[in-house]
Amino acid sequence: MKRFIGMATAKYRGLFRMRIQTYLTAFIVNVERMVKLVEQKQYLAYLNKSTKLMTETKFLLQTMRHCAGRNLPR
Q1: What is the CA angle 22-25-28, rounded to 5?
Q2: I need a labelling partner for 73 at 20 to 30 A (CA). Which of 11, 38, 40, 56 fits?
Q3: From the CB of residue 43, how many other CB atoms can be counted at a distance below 10 Å?
Q4: pLDDT digit string (tens) for 35-54?
Q5: Which residues neighbour 5 within 8 Å (Cβ) at sequence distance 6 or greater?
Q6: In sequence order, what are the residues at sequence separation of 6 or more whose Cβ sits closer than 8 angstroms to the Cβ of residue 9?
Q7: Measuring CA to CA, how many Å separate 26 from each of 2, 11, 14, 15, 29?
Q8: C-alpha separations of 34 from 18, 21, 29, 46, 59 in Å
Q9: Of the candidates 39, 12, 40, 37, which has an alpha carbon nearest to the alpha carbon of residue 24?
């Protein structure tokens, strides 16, 4: 956090104000991480759903091919 967020220098004087700055900075960094995780989980859920749909489609196509090869009773 020190290098990437700008915590090398304090913006305010005093230990109390520096502590507030540190807490707020850590809070913002954690919120950004949570947003990225939620977006990633939504994307993975989308991929999982589309993979499941592709698997079901392949199964249906195989079943149709299998049934078309047989002489079905009329």
Answers
A1: 150
A2: 56
A3: 10
A4: 888 888 887 787 777 777 77
A5: 25, 29
A6: none
A7: 11, 15, 18, 16, 5
A8: 24, 20, 9, 18, 37
A9: 12
What the block records as the tokens of 62 is 């195989």
Q: Count the residues in the chain.
A: 74
Q: How confident is the model at residue 3 (pLDDT cuts 50, 70, 90)?
A: low
Q: How far is 33 from 11, CA to CA, in rounded Å?
A: 24
H helices of 1-74, where?
15-69
Greatest Cα-to-Cα distance within the chain, rounded to the nearest angstrom:
90
